[in-house]
Design brief:
It is a single chain. The longest helix is centred in the first third of the chain and has 26 residues. This protein is 80% helix and 0% strand. The chain is elongated. By secondary structure, the chain is mainly α. The chain has one domain: Substrate Binding Domain Of Dnak, Chain:A, Domain 2 (Up-down Bundle). This is Four-helix bundle copper-binding protein.
């Protein structure tokens, strides 16, 4: 089962016949990115060195990704300008999280940075497909 399929089943999407695949990809990545960032933050908290900035950055990124997911899932009504801005904000926060994680030589940070970069790319692509 995929979130893309769930979005496609929304009555408004079925009626219009238009599924925004880039938005589905962004929602999918943001969902996973949020969980990966939470896991990375938890792992960073267990490291022996001070990882407080990475914990904060990952936690903030997780929250922004969760909010972006919720906005991206809504197909009833419209609020395209807010969605565009949220996708752009999510991309910037993910890039900042990736940059912070890349400062550390921990496997969990490397994996987190990778998903953050992928999420940022998909959010930018999705924002380009939405017309206010």
């Amino acid at each position: 089962m995929s979130i893309r399929k769930m979005i496609a089943l929304h009555p408004d999407v079925k009626k219009s016949g238009h599924v925004n695949d880039p938005l589905g990809d962004a929602v999918h990545h943001a969902m996973y990115c949020a969980k990966m960032c939470l896991s990375c933050a938890d792992a960073c908290a267990a490291e022996r060195m001070d990882m407080s900035q990475c914990v904060r950055t990952c936690s903030d990124c997780a929250d922004v990704c969760e909010a972006t997911t919720r906005l991206g899932l809504r197909r009833t009504g419209s609020n395209e300008q807010i969605l565009i801005e949220m996708l752009g904000f999510c991309a910037r926060v993910c890039e900042a999280c990736a940059a912070e994680c890349e400062k550390h030589d921990h496997d969990h940070c490397k994996l987190c940075a990778q998903i953050c970069r992928e999420c940022a790319e998909d959010c930018r692509k999705a924002a380009e497909t939405i017309t206010p």
